Amino acid sequence: METWLKISSLLCIFGFLKEFRPSEPYITPYLMSPRMNFTQEQISQDIYPVSIYANMLSLIIVFLVTDLLRYKIVIIADALSGVFVYCGLILFKSLFAMQVVEVFYGLFMAGEVAYYTYIYAKVEKEHFQEVTSHTRSAYLAGRALSGVVSQIIVYFNIMSYYHLQYLSLGGLLSASVWAMMLPSVKQSVYFHQNTVTQSSVDLNEPIDATDSMCRTETRVPLSYAAQHLWSDFTAAFTNAYVVKWAVWWALSTCGYWQVPYYIQL
């Protein structure tokens, strides 16, 4: 198996496991169950909005930290945030505890940035289109399977809403362990870049270009990284096609998350 395909497969397995959360379509009934005993008003006004604002505020920070820490650590932290979320849903019952859980859920959702960008730092540009389709397909396959499993379990009354949380926790624990096996990334877009230096050569020997040039990974100054980031930002958002894509993506994402959050109320 080619290296790029192996790396893509490893990441796709992580994405599939991370999205296997059968309890997610039934979070609202679980929170309103006698065990948790929250009202519909508390859920819609005091609990769910916390994760939305936490996600919005953490997205930019997570993006920068992902590049600074070179992806893998953030992917592991993302999976562990999910583990905390479902441990919280299993163990805690107070309103404040659920709001803390929602903060971590917002961080968990923001951490998808690392999942989607990791692969571009590990494979050659010629494979970008293929690995993009792989990672997105794995994400959707995990969500689809978890939805089907949860529907079957609830329809046939195999498990309660409470026990569905354990299935989700199991998926995220598996994703956390799997994330630790992902190959590390040596360079990133802004803070860690490849530099080319001239190596010492014997002038009496024929010069080989591959031997005389040495590629090393160095951490660039913060000012240079900020300048590079601003340059990319202005280049992207002065492009009409990118702006239109960004607007439609934002609207579609907001619309999508309104459905799973509030259709259960």
UniProtKB/TrEMBL annotation:
Organism annotation: Homalodisca liturata
UniProt xrefs under Pfam families: Folate_carrier
Transmembrane recorded as keyword: yes
InterPro entries: Folate_carrier (IPR002666), MFS_trans_sf (IPR036259)
GO cellular component: plasma membrane
Superkingdom, taxonomy of origin: Eukaryota
Matching SUPFAM superfamilies: MFS general substrate transporter (SSF103473)
Keywords tagged on the record: Membrane, Transmembrane, Transmembrane helix
Protein name stated in the entry: Uncharacterized protein
One Gene Ontology MF term: vitamin transmembrane transporter activity
Magnesium recorded as keyword: no
Residues passing through the membrane, by range: 46-66, 73-92, 98-119, 140-158
Family classification: Belongs to the reduced folate carrier (RFC) transporter (TC 2.A.48) family.
UniProt xrefs under PANTHER family: FOLATE TRANSPORTER, IP11787P-RELATED
